[in-house]
């Protein structure tokens, strides 16, 4: 079996810890690329996405901290619409700073609890 990258090992470690501490709450998953940032709220029990937001084709364009904060506000609004108030934050293999932190802070300000 091929050796896993540092990113993949970190992603698996984070996901494993979340599954043990989730307590049935949906997961707020964040993915970032060089051009965009994506967030979605996933119900792992049913295997479906409850809400999603990203910088693709929307008003916040680009991959900067301001766009990430707008995506955080958008995902919080979409979660409220879907009836979700508490989630567990899945940062994936990304470190919790910069755009990921801006998204998380904006989602908390928007009313999500995690």
TrEMBL record:
Subunit record text: Part of the 50S ribosomal subunit; part of the 5S rRNA/L5/L18/L25 subcomplex. Contacts the 5S and 23S rRNAs.
Family: Belongs to the universal ribosomal protein uL18 family.
Keywords: Ribonucleoprotein, Ribosomal protein, RNA-binding, rRNA-binding
Gene3D superfamilies (alphabetical): 3.30.420.100
PANTHER family hit by this protein: 39S RIBOSOMAL PROTEIN L18, MITOCHONDRIAL, LARGE RIBOSOMAL SUBUNIT PROTEIN UL18M
InterPro entries assigned: Ribosomal_L18, Ribosomal_uL18_bac-type, Ribosomal_uL18_bac/plant/anim
Species annotation: Altererythrobacter litoralis
Annotated GO CC locations: ribosome
Name this polypeptide is given: Large ribosomal subunit protein uL18
Role noted for this protein: This is one of the proteins that bind and probably mediate the attachment of the 5S RNA into the large ribosomal subunit, where it forms part of the central protuberance.
Pfam families for this protein: Ribosomal_L18p (PF00861)
Superkingdom in the source lineage: Bacteria
SUPFAM superfamilies hit by this protein: Translational machinery components
């Amino acid at each position: 079996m091929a050796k896993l990258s540092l990113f993949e090992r970190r992603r698996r470690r984070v996901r494993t810890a979340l599954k043990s501490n989730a307590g049935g709450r949906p997961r707020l998953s964040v993915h970032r690329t060089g051009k965009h940032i994506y967030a979605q709220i996933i119900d792992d029990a049913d295997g479906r996405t409850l809400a999603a937001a990203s910088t693709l084709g929307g008003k916040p364009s680009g991959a900067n901290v301001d766009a990430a904060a707008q995506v955080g506000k958008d995902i919080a609004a979409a979660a409220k619409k879907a009836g979700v108030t508490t989630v567990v934050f899945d940062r994936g293999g990304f470190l919790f700073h910069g755009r990921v932190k801006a998204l998380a802070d904006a989602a908390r300000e928007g009313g999500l609890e995690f």
